[in-house]
TrEMBL record:
Pfam families: Cass2, MerR_1. InterPro entries: AraC_E-bd, Cass2, DNA-bd_dom_put_sf, MerR-type_HTH_dom, Reg_factor_effector_dom_sf, YobU-like_regulator. PROSITE patterns: HTH_MERR_2 (PS50937). Gene3D superfamilies: 1.10.1660.10, Regulatory factor, effector binding domain (3.20.80.10). SMART domains: AraC_E_bind, HTH_MERR. It comes from the Bacteria. This is Effector binding domain-containing protein. PANTHER family: TRANSCRIPTIONAL REGULATOR PROTEIN YOBU-RELATED. Residues 1-71 form the HTH merR-type domain. CDD domains: HTH_BmrR. The lineage of its organism: Bacteria, Bacillati, Bacillota, Bacilli, Bacillales.
Amino acid sequence: MLTVGQLARIFNVSAKTLRHYDAVGLFTPVKVGEENQYRFYSPEQLPELRRILFLRSMGLSIEIIRELKRNGTLGDAEKLKPILLGHADGIRDEIERQQKLLAAVQRMVDYISITGGTNMEPKLVKKAAFTVVGMEWNNKSSEGGIPQLWDRFVPREDEIQGKLQPDISYGVCIPGSNGDFSYIAGYETTGEHIPNGMMTFAVPEQTYAVFTHTGSLSRLGETMELIYSKWLPLHSLEPSQGMDLEVYDERFTGPEDEQTQIDLYIPVKP
């Protein structure tokens, strides 16, 4: 027979925990001394206690484990296996959630570091008017967002004829009224041929401050925030009403690549 103290030593658990398990009917001794009320356990009970302690370490409540014991699942490996697998799925989901939270915290740390000292020097460019042929999305659309527009456009980009710069594609942001805006994914062309489902748009001549975004496009908004809140004012540049341009050339190596680069053309007053 084994005492509470011996079990506590074997499983590195407190005697208080074992007494609590007894009190709630989760793990009870086979014998209690009549005179001293000492609890005694049999060696055959050790596997059961090991499973109880393991399930508790996995976050399962005493109530759930007690129910598993009551219906015979605790001692049946085949019945216990799907429960553990389901719990493993829950742990993986929680790990993924925590990893996303960690990444968000790290992005904020990076953002604070950038706003604390880094400055990006813009290049001023006066770009002549040009014509873009491509596919359009607006913020009232039910067809996803801008990434989904590119997913639809890229497989069809070879349909566009008369490209003037075949290695450079554009994202044209067109402001509307009441906060609405449209976005065109396309190429600069002669505008003579418009594939079915696409449209043509004339981008007027504008003066731009050009900044380079490096890294995943998921952080493009952070770069845009820095442009308007810090870098333009720092260089005494005032944004003007016009069309922002995203310019994708050979430096663009994928939307999630941390080494990818695109140029952001921000309209400014001359």
